[in-house]
């Protein structure tokens, strides 16, 4: 079953469904329905501290390779839901404006690395 998370901007805190007293959907929405709520997409990604579920709004890190195949940097692609194709995608457009969406599994396969999210991280500060 997919889980929800909610971001409270004033406190800069993220709440996850399944934490104490927030097991049920009804309880979670009752306590956090007025915040930015996003859904997990059913995939697991690696983080600096282990693994966790991937949510809409997460940044997934992709390597930028040179002509020899060596990593020279990273780009961070936000996870979005494409209502036109009914699938979870990454926004690969230059301005991250939703003009070029690619299915996550087609783009990454199973090698997902979560580098942050649109709520707690500024895109320019991610490494």
Instruction: Determine the number of helices (DSSP H or I, runs of at least 4 residues).
Output: 2
Which strand order do you get reading across the main beta sheet? 8-7-6-5-9
Number of domains: 1
Q: Structural class of the helices, strands and pairings?
A: mainly beta
How far is it from the N-terminal to the C-terminal residue, by CA? Answer: 31 Å
Global Rg: 15 Å
Find the count of extended strands (DSSP E, 2+ residues).
9
Strand content: over 45%
Summed over residues and divided by their number, the pLDDT gives a mean of: 88
As residue ranges, the low-confidence spans are none
**Oligomer state of the chains in this structure:** single chain
The helix content, as a percent range, equals 10-25%
**Shape estimate:** globular
Largest sheet composition: 5 strands, antiparallel
User: SSE order, as H and E?
Assistant: EEHEEEEEEHE
